[in-house]
């Protein structure tokens, strides 16, 4: 029965990688965010691909929520700025400090930022 549940097709379209010393800023969108100061919820980056990322957040993010994300990669002068949707979010139960792992799906990105992300991808995946 387990063989029937698993698909022979890979679920991911892009390979994941973890660039060293990458910094991530993730600001959830919303009414209060637009009026008040924008709060970064990202504590770090777990992995990245051309289609999405997994981040560590300091609070739970609601699946379907829109976020503004900025990546800064060591060795690359310009940041990658994009809009992403929260796909899933789970509490990290192995951590004593409150942390959540969240999967983000990239939604809107300018051609310039798409090119920057592709350059980072080529650097680490070849």
How would you describe this structure to a colleague?
The protein has 126 residues and is α+β, with helices and mostly antiparallel strands. It has one domain (19-125): Thrombin, subunit H (Beta Barrel), CATH 2.40.10.220. Helix content is 19%, strand content 37%. The protein has helices spanning 2-5, 31-35, 111-125, and strands at 23-28, 42-48, 52-57, 66-72, 80-91, 100-108. Strands 1-4-5-6-3-2 form a six-stranded antiparallel β-sheet. A hairpin with a 3-residue loop joins strand 2 and strand 3 (52-57). The longest helix has 15 residues, at 111-125. The model has no long low-confidence stretch (mean pLDDT 88).
Features:
alpha+beta, 19% helix, 126 residues, 37% strand, globular, single chain
Count of the domains: 1
- The helix-strand sequence is HEHEEEEEH
Shape field: globular
Give a count of the beta strands, DSSP E runs of length 2 or more.
6
CATH topology: Thrombin, subunit H
**Can you identify the CATH superfamily?**
predicted glycosyltransferase like domains
- Name of the CATH architecture: Beta Barrel
Taking Cα atoms only, what radius of gyration do you get, to the nearest Å?
15 Å
Strand content: 35-45%
According to CATH, what is the class? Answer: Mainly Beta
What class would the helix/strand composition place it in? alpha+beta
